[in-house]
Amino acid sequence: MESNSLQQLAYISSATSEPTSADLQAILDVATDKNQQHKITGFLMYAERIFYQIIEGPKTEIDTLYSNLLRDTRHSKVTRILYNPISSRRFADWSMAFMRFDKINDIPVKGYSNYFHEYLKSGKKTLNILDTDDAKSVEQMIDDMRKSLLGV
Question: What's phi and psi for 78, nearest 5 deg?
Fold first, then answer.
């Protein structure tokens, strides 16, 4: 596969401390600027100390960004749940869209599951969505999140 091919990556993580609105805005501002520079698009969702992010762009840029995310001390239990080549972007117009919810149950996304949230709260060391019913809904969940962000 060419290094410039498009790649999509989704991950979840747990905030090491409760970020303030200013903290979240700073994360969003830096991500927006850096993502524009590196031709990365996607969105970030936050609820109850859980980050859920989907990013897409050139494979080398996605791999570098994910490597940096793994070293970021503002979150822990960074778990990749999707890593696929894609033929076109789902979030082409967003260098970084953002949604914040007070409660996981407030997330208005069909197919969103507390599975990821419960995993991060558990003591489990690995997440294997291929062994769960949630694996079937990850792609649908991404589409539903995109539609929720667009308001369609």
Answer: -65, 120
